[in-house]
Amino acid sequence: MAGLLKTTDLLGLTVCKTPYERLKILYTRILDRLYHLSHQGSPVKVEPDVKNLGEQLQGGQIEKVILQAEKELSLTRKMVQWKPWDPLLKEPPANQWKWPV
């Protein structure tokens, strides 16, 4: 693949050898999780050119975008467990959502 980096120059973040495939898998999994939350799927248009993909996603280097997508996937799994859409167990105090108090 033309333009593949040898290093990201970012500590602890290695170059992904198949960034397009990795992001496609991660975002598909994220959408699958989101579908379970919202009961609506949403197709994602993916750019096959790695450089353009990073620019379109405004994430800089593609490895940073992959890292963010992995964190998003992790969060969607936690949201399914936490069920934030369920009603509160008890009513919040009167001024809990008021700022400043």
From TrEMBL:
Coiled coil location: none
Report one GO cellular component.
Answer: mitochondrial inner membrane
Going by the entry's taxonomy, the superkingdom of the source organism is recorded as: Eukaryota
GO biological process terms held by the UniProt record: respiratory electron transport chain
InterPro entries reported in the protein's UniProt record: NDUFA5 (IPR006806)
Subcellular localization, as worded in the UniProt entry: Mitochondrion inner membrane
Query: Keywords in UniProt for this one?
Result: Electron transport, Membrane, Mitochondrion, Mitochondrion inner membrane, Respiratory chain, Transport
* Topology of this chain in the membrane: Peripheral membrane protein
What is the annotated role of this protein in its UniProt record?
Accessory subunit of the mitochondrial membrane respiratory chain NADH dehydrogenase (Complex I), that is believed not to be involved in catalysis. Complex I functions in the transfer of electrons from NADH to the respiratory chain. The immediate electron acceptor for the enzyme is believed to be ubiquinone.
Q: Which PANTHER family match?
A: NADH DEHYDROGENASE [UBIQUINONE] 1 ALPHA SUBCOMPLEX SUBUNIT 5, NADH-UBIQUINONE OXIDOREDUCTASE 13 KD-B SUBUNIT
Q: Which family does it belong to?
A: Belongs to the complex I NDUFA5 subunit family.
Quaternary structure, per UniProt, is: Complex I is composed of 45 different subunits.
Put simply, this protein is called NADH dehydrogenase [ubiquinone] 1 alpha subcomplex subunit 5
